[in-house]
Amino acid sequence: MPELSYREAVRDALSRAMRDDEDVFIMGEDIAEMGGSMGVTQGMLDEFGPERVRNSPISEMALAGAAIGAAMQGMRPVAEIMYEDFLTLATEQIVNQAAKHRYMSGGQLSVPVTFRTQGGAGWSPGAQHAQQLEAWFVHIPGLKVVFASTPSDVRGLLWSSIYDDNPVIFFEHRTLYGIKEDVPDELEPIPLGEARVHRPGEDVTVIATGRLVHESLAAAEEAEQEGVSVEVVDPRTLQPLDEDALVSSVKKTNRCVVAHEAVTRMGFGAEVAAVIQYGAFDWLDAPIERVGAKFAPLPFAPVMEEFVVPHSRDVLDAIYRTVGRSNGSDGN
Amino acid sequence: MAKVEQKGTLSKSDLREFFREMLLIRRFEEKVEERFRAGELPGFLHVAIGQEAVAVGVCRALEEGDIIGSTHRAHGHTLAKGTTPNELMAELYGKLEGCSHGYGGSMHLYDIERGNMGANAVVGGGLPAIVGAALAFKFRGEPRVGVAFFGDGATNIGTFHESLNLAQLWQVPAVFVCENNHWAESTPSWQHMPIEDISQRAVAFGMKAVKVDGQDVEAVYKAARRALEHARGGKGPVFLAVNTYRLVGHYIGDPQVYRSKEELEQTRETQDPIQHLRARLELSDDEVEEIDREVQEIVDTAVDFAKSGTDPKPEDALKNVYA
Question: B244 with B51: CB under 8 angstroms?
């Protein structure tokens, strides 16, 4: 079993798809010689050449739209949007075009395009290079949304996204690129819409995405020391959402914390909380807790950034609140 | 619809066929206005009266396999690209038999089998996808061209500039047909563009740009033919700056408070592409009447077809969200 970093796992999925299939190509800003701003596509230019590892101008509307147009002709483009903040520039094309062509055509078209993007706080990029905007896209019928948190997940989910016949917004987290995991030689596709239980537990379910999966696992370890057994579940695909897996976990533990790095208010976690309260109302022994960023743009100064985004201690505090302990500070 | 055999040259019978097709679009659009005013048609409707020669001239120059992307003013392009009047009218009535099966409507007309990749209700929204389609043709070595229709108003939006830049940079087989009707909805060119010669915008990207009289279908056809050959031959995209006139309001019911009746009258008298072609072909009243009767009948049949079409079930709204 080779050990792959999250970064290498993304590259591995892209490269395998491109070796197998001439319809797959990648395009994006600085992805060729430079290998992408996060180094994800390093070396791919040498293997696949400049036609299929296509550097684009800084031009998100055309980049996104051209990927959509190629997909409508049956290709399977993977467009890299360098920072998810720049999805805002491509949003018209993604929301009005990619998400709706199949619908508006009455089912004549499919748009098998994947938009890879990344973001996340933790290194002071400031307010325009670290947002978590997944909640914008889960709200749009016609889009699928993936947020992978481990090397094996990112590889298997990216493969499935490339081969899904719908537009997929594929979120990666900047701080996860370096984490490593043993993965099988053979790439195992992970179906979209299937949650992963990272850690079984009895007392509280933490439903977390992206970086917060790891923060939640750390919090769960600590809680374990205090005798609180925590189950950590990563939905992995935010749209479609594996509601059954989330609800059945909470029916087992009777308590729920939802954790993501994006701002709490109106976040993805709000929808998850609604799903849980409806699906497991009679099983809940405590209000559902939400953990996320405070309602502010991401600040530059490290002390402020640290303050705004959630960490394992915030998850831990939330876990304790659900079991009626007050070991921590107030959450948000 | 039969393609013109002798490329680049047009016989009198070819032009007569163009005349018939333009008149069909005109009568179709007039019928749409009539049925809208009768309260039968939901939604927004933008008719292409005055711009028929652009749709017919360009679409007749296309080869099998070429694709188009259209705009909110799409009925003419859609008919010219081969969608039947029945299927188009049924779509305007929101019927399952419509070319978008009732999911699209006037501003979202699709006919993938016939190479119509969709009309777009976001001004400039369809241009990037045409670049991407053309890129796919280039990747696969297919001798196909992607054609984007759009208006002068679209040349102010970012997608236009980004698309032309990318198309020229990547030398994809695309033709950009700018239907400059001098109005962006109700706003005249002089209020929305700081230049008069719209082709300069393509020249700025190093793109081959050609100016065309959009009220002369033969000129449009010939220019489109050359542009398509250029693009198909791998020589890069072409911009057609087509000068045309919208002889009606922006939408059906537009009171057109922004232009004088005199100006509109004068434009109608001097810039009607159908009258131009009629004069050029020296068609007699009898000949025109005969063609007119034929196309009117087609349009009436389309209305009957549409009205007797199948309404979607309300819950059909939940289909086709995902593949």
Answer: yes
